[in-house]
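Subject: Small nuclear ribonucleoprotein Prp3 C-terminal domain-containing protein

B.,
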Amino acid sequence: MLQTPSSNIFVQIQEIHVLRCSLLPDETLSFPADSELWNDIFDRLDVGEDVAVDDLSESLWPLRIAVGIQDAPMHVEIELSRSYPHDELPIVMIRGAAISREIHNEAKAMAEQQITQLKEAGEEMIVYQVLSAHLLPFARQQSDQARRDHISSVEHPRSQPSHAPVAFHALFTSHHLISTKKRRSLQQWSSSLHLMGFAKVGYPGLIYCEGLQDDVEEFVANVKSMQWLALHNRFMEALPPSDHLQSRREWLEMEKIAEAVQYMKALGRHSFVADMGIGSTSTTDS
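Prediction pasted inline below.
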């Protein structure tokens, strides 16, 4: 049994519990972060034990859940801030290396439209409604289609053209980067999207990432979806043909402009920041 029923956290956990209990046998719900703790909480709720939600640490938010269908080519991740559902809307991320950009965009647009409509209508349990009525059925359609395509390819094999993945990188500048929530989200997104890069915190803020094109595009969209002061996407483009993705997948935090400049120099990409005046005398911090 949940305690403190008036809090946002109570509403979130109650909604996830309802969603968890409504899943079909082949549908899954997991927690990409702090999974042991969250699974323990919901296992206790399943047997009617008390859970004091106000005792949960703020560091557990934003709370992310991953929902999908076993062996399906796509799944959905939902990110909830501590102020959902009364203030901020959930962030929807469509995952799946085997789905096309068209399918990805269709699912994301559908989810965002439904979330907006439900919010405007004053509906409750927005995440539950969007997942159960729209995203899970859509994922099941994609799973069924992938199964049919596989059977067809086995019965009627034909050669398929190969397309090498395109390496991209992107750079943001902002007035500042202080928020621990933003910094945590950047770290989580870089990990889930297999990106490398850095966040220069303080004044000004810098964010740089590199990875495969689809992953960089999703990261950029996620960054833009947050509230910023004077955020600018300086570029998002393919890496030069002579350049290559770095083998290490790590995300760093820095406090000085000089560290960011040195990072770009080590990659042979100093010009990408120098051409914008980053690292000049007027912007370099001590």
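Helices lie at 8-22, 35-46, 101-120, 126-155, 180-192, 213-224, 257-266, 270-274.

T.
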